[in-house]
Amino acid sequence: MSWKSTGYARYGSSIDFAAQHVKRVMESNSTVTPDVQRDVTKRADDYVRWVTIACAPLLLIGLVNGLYLPYLHKLNPLYFWLADGLHYIGLLLFAIAILAAKLDLYPRDYGFRSPFPEYTFGEFAFLAFITSFGTLLVYGFS
Fold this sequence. Notes:
The N and C termini lie far apart (58 Å). This protein is an all-alpha fold. It is elongated, with a radius of gyration of 21 Å. Helix 2 (34-75) packs antiparallel against helix 3 (77-103). Helices cover 73% and strands 0% of the residues. It is built from four helices and no strands.
């Protein structure tokens, strides 16, 4: 029996699934069946596994990038900035994608809200690109 077949698939994320299940069990004064307990345990194990896969590269790079970033800067400052951008933009997007694809866990589920909900993600991405490119033009590429 999968967690979707238990009737909880209508909730937005797996966190909602677990919270609603606990609420239902408490309201009904019933016990958790072994199937549901096994299902919830499997979902918790999936959370631990996929959060570790998503966050481990960020933690690892955060610990060791001080060893090679100075050498990249000596070679060429552009290499330094490319590596830094890959670490803190590319790996972060990778982590967000893994959490969204595997756990149905989106940035809104862990606290990120748009201060301007009338703007789309594309508009924000365009503004970020223009701001970044403008900063590079003003301060130079080196």
